[in-house]
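Could you join me in thinking about how sequence relates to backbone shape in a protein? Label the sequence line and the structure token line clearly, so we can match residues to local backbone shapes. Once you have written the record down, we can walk along the chain together.
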Amino acid sequence: MKYSVKKLIQTSLGVALYSLITHTALGADPLKLDVNLTPIAKIQPTMYGIFFEDINFAADGGLYAELVKNRSFEFEQPLMGWSQPATDPYSTNDDSGIANTLNFAENTTNKNVLRVNVFNDKNYSLVNEGFRGMGIHKGETYRLSFYAANPEGTIKRVVAQLVDAKGKAIASTTIPTTHKDWHKYSQTLVANTTEEKASLKITFEGKGTLDMDMISLFPKNTWKERENGLRKDLVQLLADLKPGFLRFPGGCIIEGRTLAQRYQWKNTLGQLDNRPTMISRWNTEFKHKLTPDYFQSFGLGFYEYFQLAEDLGAEPIPVLNCGIACQFNSGELVPVSELDPYIQDAIDLIEFANGTTQSPWGKVRADMGHPEPFNMKYIGIGNEQWGPQYIERFKVFQKVLKEKHPEIILISGSGPFADGQMFDYAHRELKKLNAEIIDEHYYRDIAWFKNNATRYDNYDRNGPKIFAGEYAAQSVAVVSPENKNSWETALAEAAFITGLERNADVVQLTSYAPLMAHTGAWQWSPNMIWFNNLQVLATANYQVQKLFSTHKGSELVSITHAGKPLTGQNGLYASAATDQPENALLIKLVNTDADARHIQFTVPAPVKKSIATITYLGAKHLLSENSFASPDQIKPEIHRQGFKNNTLTYTAPPHSVSVISIPLNH
């Protein structure tokens, strides 16, 4: 090796290499790998992408940067999230006033407004708790807005404050309420300190009645500084993945526990105050994490999802309800003869995404600020439905959509499990229908992922392509709240991913799931990204996804030992690709063994320079995790290694993932 042991032990990569040098006989004959640069298959730009689901407070309270919970008073308990500094939210505070909601049934999307009655000048106030608090950063500017009507003109002004966990004001502004009729008021606040558990406090000056609605607070520093924007640090982690696609708005979220509670994309468009609020199907799904305050404001709606995909340079992949509610809940069905409205939703979505500004739904897109089409190419029909009920409904969708829009690729599903009778049935029937892409999901244990690197080796090359749409290694058990984002899970996933890459002629899209979770309001673990109100955390699993996604290459090539691919022999897994834009060979090596592996391969092509760039991931222990206290325990380390005569000898450290990049000269 080019570097001395003394030099290497100065880095975390060096620690690993020093350890293997002292425990492995490097003088032993290396394992010889054969590389053949003849292209096997094109690696699709969509090979690695993002699956977003509104679970774990991933939208409201997470990616969507709104800080006020229940801003329009539309939760089942209209004042949930709001208090009138007293234990009972409907009590007065010091007899100075009271607030309740008025319901206007004729408004079908935003029925409730807040009526504030101020009795005297004792500083009656309301407080919003945010999503497990509000994350406020020192020196940052926050945009406050609300609608108000002051018919008597006797409420002179409101004082808006951001207060810390102890009630101390950390930002303040005064807004005169001068309009008798409904009017939108806006003001900014600048925080003088950082606080993870801040609240918004509104105090009323004057005596009389004030009606309010859509009380909103956003950081100015959102992604691209959009007013109805996204949390910048979370989007940056997504952008760093360089994803090929963004699937949205989720999986089970589109199904609903009942069809009445299904996700309906048209309800998520237009002005924010015209978007209805709906309870999340995850609010009380799991007894271990009840979140009765989990609702969807749809401030992050289909327009914003398409916009985000465009920002990321990713293909948008919306998923639509197929006429079946979640089969783990009610399993409610729409009769096949009554599917027309569901199919029309798909037709209208194509027009919204791709239609001209003269078309009805294309005009809606243009009016929202995007006259150019989003160039959508894919639609998912259903999520994890199974059985004859799904197949007969997919068949109807397929017939109509392929007649009207043959250019749109339809993604079908094989159910929630990776095998079994219903899985086999789905594949058999979908193949008869010439389905284009089948979405497979697998939440399995660590051993399963290591043992299934060969899963797609024998799939029909002339059958449907595969979307590995949801997967994550479970350290304890599926749905267990004790699942961890350990290095052991990430390592097993890396081994599995090499099998996805080796079968790039069949597997065209892949994504880890779920994407993200709020540390104070999650329902499911593990997750790729964790966040609190102030910080974001890239897990070991994120680091593996990023390593593969940013080194996917463009054409699959062969790497073998004794004529066979590495699928776990000696604990080694491997895949290889050439990167045409970079004119490089990329070799991915995963060593799941407790011993280092000494390997050697010869590049069968001229190389630009006899120097390889090696990006390495590893950890001190299999149970190691990144945390907010130690976010960089597991992160990529990069070094360069020289070699001679096109032959590289490399030692893969124990329990490691390595990407070796060699510049070619052809």
User: Anything to note?
Assistant: The chain has a mean pLDDT of 93. DSSP finds twelve helices and 34 strands in the chain.
